[in-house]
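To close the chapter, one final illustration. This time we ask the reader to focus less on the individual chains and more on the assembly as a whole: which components sit near each other, and how the overall shape emerges from the parts.
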Amino acid sequence: MTHHVLDMPIDADTARSLRIGDTVTLRRTLYGIRDATLIHMFDRDRRTRLDLNGHAVIHTAPNVHKVPVSAEAPVGYTPFCIGTTTSMRMERFTRALMEREGVRLIIGKGGMGPATLEAFRDLGGAYLAIVGGAAALETTWIEQIEDIDMDDLHPESLWRFRIRDFGPLLVGMDSHGGSLFADVQDAVAARRDAVLASIGASE
Amino acid sequence: MDLDMREVEAVCAALYVQALKILPPDIKAGFKTLVQNETDATGKTILGTMVENIAVAERTKNILCQDTGIPIYNVTIGRNVAFDGAELKAAIRRGCERATKENSLRSSVVHPITRKNDQTSCGIRVPIIHVDFDTREETVGIEMIPKGSGSENGSFLKMLLPSDGIKAAKRFVIDRVVELGGRVCPPTIVGVGLGGTSDLCMHLAKIAATRPLRTVCSDEEGAKIEAELSQAVNELGIGPQGLGGRSTSFAVHVEVAATHITQNPVAVNIQCHSARRALATVTPGGIAFS
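The assembled structure is written out below.
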């Protein structure tokens, strides 16, 4: 179990050095993305001017204040409550996000599936688990909303956050076929029959 | 008592914000119990982060979770209350919209076909408003629930056969909890509806999922099943966020309704660990929030 402090962006080798059970703290830059953003980018082939190459994306749609543009708010938004949504809905976009945009790390809650694990193995990436629902705490790790694209999808825009010591996050899935979520699912499946028997609900 | 609609609007706005910021005492107490009983190291750490988040939200006056949810208002009207029903619904909607705009809350509500977001937390038939009646004198209760959607996506209905028995309903609940794993932001409250028609069964599951912890199903048979299932789900090992441990759920709650001789419906609706609700009680003496 190693703790990694990563100055974003990173390369494929660094992404491959992460192993399930390790912890990670991110610095500098983080992108926010979710359902509508991904649907527009990949199902409707919409391109972004933002450079995601080597970066981490977090599954989010934040609460923000709209303010006049200033040095603190370069695109006219200040963060108010930024949290994380369920990742599994976005499973089918992982490979495209990595291949076309060069994304290396995905941060979310609840874990992702076999297609994501395969993309990580082929391309070099990892899934970092954050505690869902702990958004007030997570917001204290965000310094600024630096840039934004596709804001017609607000709040499901593509957000660029400046971060300070974002974490610790738990490596939940890695480039070597490891998934803490799959491990727990297997253990749960093995207990299911005994649990059903204990309440007289066996098949 | 005449219900003042400007007051209703203000109360509905305040309730949305309060619900998003402060967890009810029963949920905070529920966390304490889970922390005491958790044996898994990762599970303990995650529960610790959730408890820390509750304190950070209160200290920084922030909302607990980014998901402002689908707004639900449950209104219970007592005896000798005079009001215009259409005005009441309009006032609730204005309050919901006002809370969103004045606090720059994320509007999480979109048109189901165009996916257009009006940035008001309102839309066709949303906020969801339920009106019921009780026997309290000159009293109106308004409960606000911002229903988080990671957990709302954990919703299921099955029209089982009478010959399948209650055993199949119990198995259905366990299997849905297994299938959902960490996606619904555990530790959860698993809401279970038994009986009714398809729509009533689903509604029962929502009532169950949003009922305060340590309350018990009013039907004796339903109470037995919720006690049994509450213990069983925490033997599965899903744990906080699906990363392992005992704390899969605070509780399983069951609500029941009579059903047809040909039916055996079971429904599941999940509430996440940010189990937010806020209640205002309006009487001639004033408004009390809890």
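The beta strands of chain B are 70-79, 128-137, 140-147, 155-160, 188-195, 249-257, 264-271, 278-283, 286-289. Chain B has two domains: 5-19+64-148+276-289, 149-271. With these observations in hand, you are ready for the problems at the end of the chapter.
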